[in-house]
Amino acid sequence: MSLARNVELLRRLPKLDSLRFAEFGRSPDSSSPLQEVTGFGDNPGALRMFAFVPAQLQKPRALVVVLHGCGQTAAAYDLGAGWSTLARHYGFALLMPEQQRINNGNTCFNWFNPEDTARDSGEARSIREMIAHMVEAHRIDPRRVFITGLSAGGGMTSVMLATYPEVFAAGAVIAGLPYGIASNLREALEGMFHSPARPARELGDLVRNASDHRGPWPKMSVWHGSADRTVNPGNANEIVKQWLDLHDLPAVPMAETHVDGYPRQAWWNKDGETLVESYAITDMAHGTPLGLADNDQRYGIEGAFLIEAGISSSYHIAKFFGLTGWIADAKKRAEAKPAKPALTPAPHLARSIRSAVAEQTAEPKHEQARGFDLGQIITRALTAAGLMK
């Protein structure tokens, strides 16, 4: 497909996306525990801020920043990728910035727009202000701030890691792009569809030139579907090259393994700490991979660009961030307590309720017209079970 046709396709996307995502975005918003936060600081990028802080937080306190993809809302992506469930299970704070249609017709973060991708400017500055607000308001350890995102959110994740590397301990990019490869729409499309290869040093310099920071650099986890036709899978290789150069690591992987059936490459430092990892999700299209986690829990729900693949990217990313070793104190106490013996009449209670319902439905039709008398059903059932006289 020619670049001109790609541009024409992009022009038509707002109309298509409004239909594609309307159903997906309707119900999840009401199911997410995210709450909007206003007055968080300077907001030159005109973004909205949503956050979730569970009742119990692991110590030292951690924050994960999650950036949604095009056509999605913060709450819809939260439900789809399962981040608030993970936050509750493992006790970390969650920040989910949200793009507004006034900034981008497809609600994509503007990962290629120079005024939004420079330090202390536009959307990058807005997200940085949100992070500062969360760190202060919830006493987050500044050394335990992490970021991840899908697609355009993945591109903006690269932006944040490049422009504010001192803020983050690690990041994870899903179906995204490296920092600095585009400064306008034409270059963005070229990167998305064709992903031209660049020398590792050139890619590393793009990040080094984005701030005065000279290390240490955040750790990086890269995820991409091999059948992605929206963002060329070659971008995963370019992101890996960019961060290997920053960490002064060799191009050849130090380990090649399989996780849940998918190839994973890893590079580590002299202390054995993994600094860069890359997952290739074989035959998967554009989106966030979902599946059962190591703890047999399922995080997220299938939807647009949220794909059942047999591997939970959200869980493995949280694990890469070092967040999954914590268990809530309440859970520890519950596991330590002996189980209470069950009441002997309980096995008969369900059977008694069914019997009481059957009796009421057998009454004359003019009696049924009044509807079930729930109190009467419960009274009959408890009496039959020996729990009421």
Automatic annotation (TrEMBL):
* Keywords, comma-separated and alphabetical: Hydrolase, Signal
Keyword field contains Coiled coil: no
Q: Per the record, what is one GO cellular component? A: extracellular region
List the transmembrane segments.
Answer: none
- Read off the SUPFAM superfamilies from this record: alpha/beta-Hydrolases
Q: Organism's domain of life?
A: Bacteria
Record's keyword annotation contains Disulfide bond: no
State the Gene Ontology terms under molecular function: hydrolase activity
Q: Which NCBIfam families match?
A: esterase_phb (TIGR01840)
Q: State the protein's name.
A: Poly(Hydroxyalkanoate) depolymerase family esterase
